Amino acid sequence: MPKQVTRMLLILFFFASACSPNLTDQVDPEAITITPSATWLIEATHTSQRQTETETSIPRTSTAIPITPTPSLELNTQLGGSIGPIYSLSWSPDGRVLASAGFGQVNLWDQAEQPITLLGHDSYVWAVEWSPDGSLIASGGQDGGIFIWDGVNQTLLERMGDLWVYSVSWSPAGDRIAAGTSQGMVQVWEIASGELLLQLKPVAMAEAISLDWSPDGRLIAEGLLNGDILLWEAESGRLDETISGYTNRRSDVNGLTWSPSGGELATAHQDGVIRVWDASSRELLVEMTGHKGWARGIAWSPSGNLLATTGSDGRVIIWQMHSGKQLAEFTKSKYPMWSVDWSQGDALLATGNGVYNRQSVDGQLFILLPPDYP
User: Fold this and answer.
1) DSSP letter assigned to residue 72
2) Cα 97 from chain centroid?
3) How confident is the prediction for the chain on average, in pLDDT?
4) Are residues 61 and 80 in the same domain?
5) Phi and psi dihedrals of 128, rounded to 5?
6) Which of 361, 326, 355 lies closest to 338, judged by CA?
7) What is the secondary structure of 158-186 as a DSSP string?
8) What's the predicted TM-score (pTM) here?
9) Domain-ending residue, one of 66, 98, 115
10) What is the model's pLDDT at position 28?
């Protein structure tokens, strides 16, 4: 064989050897990372980079990981016509009439598409709540003071105070109303006399953005913009407990509510976490994460088995309390969901959305049918 041909064959042989894959460079099957996708079945595959007739072939494998989707809440009714965001809403005790907040108005819905509108406010209404006996409605907002309405005749009975009001809560007996104000203090008013009975002043000057009176009437829970949770003795006005320092993240207490038994206190926070506290020990029982962005609306079901929450992601989430499991959700809102409340007997779930402090965008009400859960 001529020397030039021999030299050319040697060069081609060494070039081919250098370009062929080394067995030690193959992918380790145990090092594969499965990245979740939007589908219900996630498939991970691996194929050998080099297979010859003399090698043991590495077959293509498939591992199916089932992901159980969160059931959707069924939409019963969608209602429009509320001016501005629906920061607050409240079912009447008999579950027949829904009161909702708007800009300069409180709307009463009784299954009709057009509400009865109570006029008297001249700015955003941040809080609305029916009295325990269903005879009165309390509301408060940026125009200052608490408005007391006749729930039957739909007339304004009284206006008490002049501070911005972010939250209201009735005493279980219905004889007093508490208001969380822009100055951080809680004001307690007597309904019959219109007298200011207590002014509960926290050390930190932060807005009292959430409020709830305990079912036994003994304590008033207050949530502050700085993340502190305060428990006040309702009769004496003494500060019973301050819960703080539970997270390093911003954690405005956007919403809070006692369980129907009074054994737990649930809170919704700016960091999107739902926290449940033991009412006796004041210890944190569980943290539930599911909202993307802040959480705000929060309400126990009357049975006490479920908790509903809303947030800036436009979602409504229902949680099972004994497990902390997310049971169902509603994701049809394109705007933040601000408020949520259950009707009597866990029959209906109402929630309201809207754009923050934009009266030009009408808020929407969604009446949902929650599934039956033990």
Assistant:
1) B
2) 23
3) 84
4) no
5) -150, 140
6) 355
7) EEE--S-EEEEEE-TTSSEEEEEETTSPE
8) 0.81
9) 66
10) 39
Residue 374 in domain: no
pLDDT for res 68: 60
Q: What is the pLDDT of residue 7?
A: 46
Strand order in the sheet with 363-369: 74-82, 363-369, 349-353, 337-342
pLDDT digits (tens, 9 = 90+) for 71-102: 999 999 999 889 999 999 999 999 999 999 99
- From CA 351, how far away is CA 368, in angstroms rounded? 8
- The answer to whether the CB of 342 falls within 8 A of the CB of 359 is no
For the chain, the first-to-last Cα distance in angstroms comes to 89
Whether 56 and 78 map to the same domain: the answer is no
Counting as low any pLDDT under 70, the low residues of the chain are 1-69, 112, 373-374
**Whole-angstrom distance, CA of residue 315 vs CA of residue 31:** 36
Alpha helices in the chain (DSSP H): 3-19
Question: In which domain, by residue range, is 339 found?
Answer: 74-369
Burial (CB count within 10 angstroms: exposed 0-12, middle 13-18, buried 19+), residue 342: buried
Tokens of 186: 């809680």
CB 230 within 8 A of CB 252: no
- Taking a C-beta distance cutoff of 8 angstroms, is the pair 232, 246 a contact? no
344 secondary structure, DSSP code: G
Nearest in space to 85 (alpha carbons), one of 256, 292, 335 = 335
Q: What is the pLDDT of residue 26?
A: 36
The per-residue DSSP string of 200-268 comes to E--SS---EEEEEE-TTSSEEEEEETTS-EEEEETTT--EEEEE--S-SS---EEEEEE-TTSSEEEEE
Distance between CA atoms of 342 and 266, rounded to whole angstroms? 15
pLDDT digits (tens, 9 = 90+) for 197-250: 999 998 888 999 999 999 999 999 999 999 999 999 999 999 999 999 999 999
